[in-house]
Amino acid sequence: MKSIEINIINKTYPDKKSGKELCVLKDFEFKVSRGEFCCIMGPSGCGKTTLLNLASGLDTDFAGEVFINGKTPSISATPGYMFQSPRLMPWLTVRENIELVVLENNASKIDALLEEMAISDFANAYPQNLSGGMQRRVALARTLINEPQLLLLDEPFLSLDLPIANRLRDSLIRAFLKNNCAVLYITHDLSEAIYLADKIFFMSSRPGSIVLEHKINFKRPRSPDNNKIEKIRMQLKQHYPKLLSGIMPS
Amino acid sequence: MKHYKLMGISGPWLRFLSSLLFLAAWQFFATYSNSDFLPSPNQVLINFVDHMIQGDLPFQLGITLMRVVVSFFTAMAIGVAVGLIMGRYQRWDASLDGVLILALNLPALVVIILCYIWFGLGEFAAILAVSINKFPLVVVNVREGARAVNQELLEVGSVFRVPSKRLFLKIFLPQLYPYLLASARAGLALIWKIVLIVELLGRSNGVGFKLGIFFQFFDITSILSYSFAFIGIVMIIEYLLIAPIDRRLSEWRK
């Protein structure tokens, strides 16, 4: 049994302006095993976030099938989902924001996780008093607290400065290796994808489908400044010059 | 509350001074007119103490306060429930919107008269009349709040499988607090005024009933002392109950 099995015949949205149906995903199929870190890349608007919403069970209106560990998403175990924006409750403190989602048997792990994210000193602060980077750390802590079998991350470290982003990436990798979970990670940064992933899925522009599934043969632990990352990136660019625009050479 | 200063005088002092100025102006006009129609603050105070000690002011205040409290909670409970449903479900909103506009525009006096005719000159009719007058305003406020609830934050609760009770209390309800508080504040001010009219028209006790009697005797001093007594109670409720709740709930905005 695969950890994630997605087979979307099509997924449409009503277009508010024209009133017509807008097809976002079409003939979209992939499988991810447990212990696989998968990055998803593709042009803007190709349906990457929609894909995470389907996998998380937020969106159930589509033609096709989605299975998480053999169950439909809404009845599968709680995933960890880190949205593009932190989405913290402004009226709850940092600790309360994490307590909000915590399952009973993980409540004792909050302190250790706050420590790991270096936000222990801010446990009783309200999100609006934290910097953007801090808020993302809280959001990551909330995503990881229940040690989920499925991690969904939507450009989680966008616009963070490099040292913090690298530190959070390391925390994420540690959690991934420890829990042996399946990860879907959306990014626009090819180097980041190569640094993190076991496999990268490249998507076409809308309606999104997968144009290339590329395995990264690079043993962990990796270093973000390892030359191999740049080498793999150059190879990919040479082979498929328009890959990041979602176009494969025919 | 922000700390402000005017000509070097701080907030609490400003409030005290403006009250003093009001009393001084009142005293001046009372002395100047020297008429029974405008008793001085001093006369009103003596009259108040007199009613408190010898009269039945405490009893009448208690009766009126009880009616205010019961109508307030009835109107809030129904208003919040209907407002939430209308704010969250478009079909309910469309079906009930016409009735709501009708209810909003129904004159208070008409509701009171009809309730007394249909349900008799009793306590039930009185409370019902006051609640019917207030609840459409609560509905409008709460519906606005329910519409403004942030969908993205609700999604967080849904993705992380937050149990529905916790989701309601920790994610949904906090977004409604400002609207609920605004309703409560406006409601308190409106309800006690309507209660007085209801009492005047159809009850045999309460502040409104007494005001009617004082009116017949042109006893303006007593009318003022009764009014100020009730204004005092409403101010106490605001400062000791609503303001602390407001401070506690908006702590995170600081």
What brief labels describe this structure?
heterodimer; A: 250 residues; alpha/beta; Rossmann fold; 2 domains; 6-stranded mixed sheet; 3-stranded antiparallel sheet; 7 helices; 9 strands; B: 254 residues; mainly alpha; two-stranded antiparallel sheet; 10 helices
Care to describe what's here?
The complex is a heterodimer of chains A (250) and B (254). Chain A is α/β, with parallel strands linked by helices. Chain A has seven helices and nine strands. A six-stranded mixed sheet of chain A has the order 5-6-7-3-8-9, sandwiched between helices. A three-stranded antiparallel sheet of chain A has the order 2-1-4. Chain A starts with a strand and ends in an 11-residue tail after the last helix. Chain B has 254 residues and is an all-alpha fold. The termini of chain B are close together. The A-B interface holds A 56-58, 78-79, 81, 83, 85, 87, 89-92, 96, 100-101, 126, 128, 142, 146 and B 152-153, 155-162, 166, 170-171, 174, 252-253.
